[in-house]
Amino acid sequence: MVPSLCDFISGSSWLEKLTVCPALLQEWTSVYIWGRGGYFSGVLNDYAIAGHWPGDFQETGLQQWAENLRRRLRAPAVSLGLVFMAPRFFPYAQQVLEILRVHARIPLLVGCSSQSLIVGSFEVEQDAGLALGLYWLPGAQLEAFHFTQAQVEASRPGYWGLQNGVPANQTNGWLVFIDPFHLDSEAWLRTWNEAYAPLPVMGGLASGDFSEQLTQLYLNGDLFEEGGVAISFGGQVKLLGMISQGCTPIGETWTLTKVEQNIIHEIGNRPAYDVLAETFNQLPPEEQQKARGNLFIGLVVNEYRDEFQRGDFLVRNLIGVDPRSGCIAVWALPRLGQTVQFQRRSAAAATEDLHQLLTRVRQQLAHATLYGGCLCCCNGRGQNLFGHRHHDAQMIQQQLGPMGLAGFFCNGEIGPVGPKNFLHGFTASLALFVQK
User: Fold this and answer.
1) Which residues, 6 or more positions from 385, have their beta carbon under 8 angstroms from its beta carbon?
2) Per CATH, the architecture of 247-346 is what?
3) What is the pTM of this model?
4) pLDDT tens digit string along 39-66?
5) Which one of 100, 184, 357, 377 has the minimum C-beta count within 10 Å?
6) DSSP character at residue 326
């Protein structure tokens, strides 16, 4: 009898007896295999593999684990390594980086710290350890660098291309990891969009020791506790980005007819609060119950469409309503004439949203080769939202896999809506590495 996947994760007796089980390799595209203190997620394709080390720092064990992971990658070389580490590795992080670079033979290693990790089909939300993704990206031209808050404050038109040596016409997109405590992510993203939009920027904000406001960013053998690290994907590899905001639209689309800063006075020439209340009251009673405390507004970013669908709206919080004046306040700066639609967030809505967006991504991929990906999920998703583990990672593997997938749970996610990139919350940001 083939054991269930839960047996391997929970540490049953099967875990200690297994070396390699052919029946498992036939049944699953992504498996956990025990070996010398760590697991690896054996994803059955030719371009990527992701592994999980659940233990503490142990030099010899990590060396053997990294060597095993590289050996099981069925590619002639590694182009890129993505590493994500739990805060308990902070004192040993630079040693870990050197071990991985040498023993997994990684020419470019980038990543950050996080309390929870994503490996293959699995989301490790407690005692996370270390995650490593190895990717072979044929024909890719990869450039990576570290940037700081001082550079953000000094940025001007043309600044970033000169600083990092990557003009807009020599990149296909960016993967970025940021320290949330010492860099103004919104200001950075505004200047970055000026330099590189509509190219996609994917990634997330690291997590770490909140009491000390401390995170770590990794670039090859260097460790940084502020700023951000960015990877440019150029040459014959592009980024295909998807941002799942976890909401489902409710009611009709409307046009904003009176706006002041972040205050919406009128929608469709009516008091904004009246339109919101009408939208809520038209929901079935059971839907109204789910919507309480979970209402948001979606702002269309690109108005040049005949019709708007999921993924065309930038979802933002409603931060206040005033029935007397008819105003609503939102966590954004909407524009006069902008199209909006109210949204509801729930576990079911997040599942529906992710499913539909992945279906669209699968159509966009067509016959292009998918090399692998990086998944950045909000800390508010996972088991907290869905009531069970591995929701996002497993759905991605089911619809797009098998593929090597590594990632982490974030303090904020970065991804495109329309022609611009934004900082999001409660979202799943998926960056796919695809043949151009």
Assistant:
1) 246, 347, 350, 391, 426
2) Beta Barrel (2.40)
3) 0.87
4) 554 445 789 999 999 999 999 999 999 9
5) 184
6) T
